[in-house]
Structures are given as structure tokens and as C-alpha cells.
Amino acid sequence: MATLVCRNFDSADETRPFEEGKGRLDLINTDRGPVGRAVFEPGWQWSKHVKPIAGTESCQAAHTGYIAGGRMKIVMDDGESVEAGPGDFISIAPGHDAWVVGDEPCVTLDWVGFGDYAVPAGS
What we know:
InterPro entries: RmlC-like_jellyroll, RmlC_Cupin_sf. This is Cupin. By secondary structure, the protein is mainly β. The protein has one domain (about 15-110): Jelly Rolls. It contains two helices and nine strands, in the order βββααββββββ. It has helices at about 45-50, 50-55, and strands spanning about 15, 25-30, 35-40, 65-70, 70-75, 80-85, 90, 95-100, 105-110. The strands form two sheets. It has a six-stranded antiparallel beta sheet with strand order 1-2-3-9-4-7, with no helix packed on it. A three-stranded antiparallel beta sheet has the order 6-5-8, with no helix packed on it. Strand 5 (about 70-75) and strand 6 (about 80-85) form a beta hairpin. The longest helix is centred in the middle third of the chain and has 4 residues, at about 45-50. The chain is globular and about 45 Å long. The chain starts with 13 loop residues before the first strand and ends in a 13-residue tail after the last strand.
């Protein structure tokens, strides 16, 4: 295991685009697991731009992360909801939809749920 790692998301190991050009996930693989930076463009919504890729009714990834910029509304399958913005820590269980609020991209860092996020169903 490396004792010191410094990586830049602009040189990610993998980039996964969302439907209709509404953003992307940049993934860095580390000895401790994948870490992702997602850029969700204005107008992005999970149920429109990732659901066709994932093939599930709602997002089934658990997320633990940080909102670096922009705003996002997260709605659980049971109706519980929150709007998160810059500086907010988020912990989200599987079973939710989400969308960008406002006219600026929402940038999220996630060190739990992006390893299998936006991977085509059956892959």
C-alpha cells in the first residue's frame, strides 16, 4: 500500500458520461477503494440521466460524500428529502432520486457509492 498518494480528478482512471451530456463521473481507483467526483450539469436528474444506464427504478447506490459546489435536491423513495449545497456532508441510503437545483453545476465528491455508479445494467 502506498504511504502517500496525490491524484487529480482531471486525470481520472475512468470517466463515465451521463445521458444527454448532463454531466459525468470521474473515478480514481485507490488501494482503499474508488473515489469519485461527479459533475451534474443544470437540468440533470437521476431518473432522467442515470436511470436509463442503471436500469433500476431509483438510485440503489449508497453515498457518503461532500458537495463542493452547486445545489442538489435528494428525495428518498419514502418521500424524505433534503436540499444540499456547498460545504454539506451527505450520507444517502439506497433508494432515492436527485436533481440539480439552480443554474450552476453541482459538484460532488463521494468515497463510498460511485464505484458502481452509472455502470450500464448487466455490466
